[in-house]
Amino acid sequence: MLGIVLDLNYLQNHYIYVIHSYGETNKIYNRVVRLLENNNSATIDKILLDKIPGGRIHNGGRIKIGPDKKLYITTGDAGNSALAQDPTSIAGKILRIELDGRIPEDNPIINSPVYSLGHRNPQGLAWNSQNVLYESEHGQSAHDKINIIKPGNNYGWPLVQGNEDSTEMIVRKPLIHSGKDTWAPSGITFVNQGPWQGKLLVATLRGQQLLAMELNGKGTVVNNLQGWLKNEYGRLREVVEGKMDRFI
């Protein structure tokens, strides 16, 4: 099991969306399924997206419902970096589908779930109050990134990392990267209320801390970066904004 999210109308339809890994004929794949919960037991209601290339590393696996009520899925390169630049592969991508598995008509590639490409191992997704989409991603050797995701944009892996340029294509540079430090960023959330309103919070694995990024008014520039809970709780997998300004 990798990612999980409840339907926006869960109390009425009892739908749960998950992405998980499985083995078939000595190969590893990932798939997105819709579960139906009934009396505290869930069954597979529908397979929404199947045969996403998988591996023992770099599966991505975050799944979120966006402000547009579409399902967004992060997929890693499954240990084969060339897949990230292959527009016909759904590995190393941010994917976008309807809640019933259909391909949105306004996706950047016709009849494709691919929303953005050139990702190594994307781990987190979050939107700010202006519907700007942020994504967290592991670099190869440090150079971990927080990206602003735009439809159809290429984020460079494996041709570039960090803030590098490419002579082969137009690559969108990250909002911020870790340089020679290793964050191993995981889940992220944008804070909409309370004393941390307007900050982007990033849970980290190797970094073993919660990063709080103060952004400009448009959410496009990091003005300040602070670390919290350093080495207090080990690897932090996810951060969510709860009620009464509590963070989990």
UniProtKB/TrEMBL annotation:
> Which residues belong to any copy of the Glucose/Sorbosone dehydrogenase domain?
1-243
Question: Which SUPFAM superfamilies does the protein's record reference?
Answer: Soluble quinoprotein glucose dehydrogenase (SSF50952)
The UniProt transmembrane annotation reads none
Q: Name one Pfam family in it.
A: GSDH
Name the UniProt record assigns to this protein: Glucose/Sorbosone dehydrogenase domain-containing protein
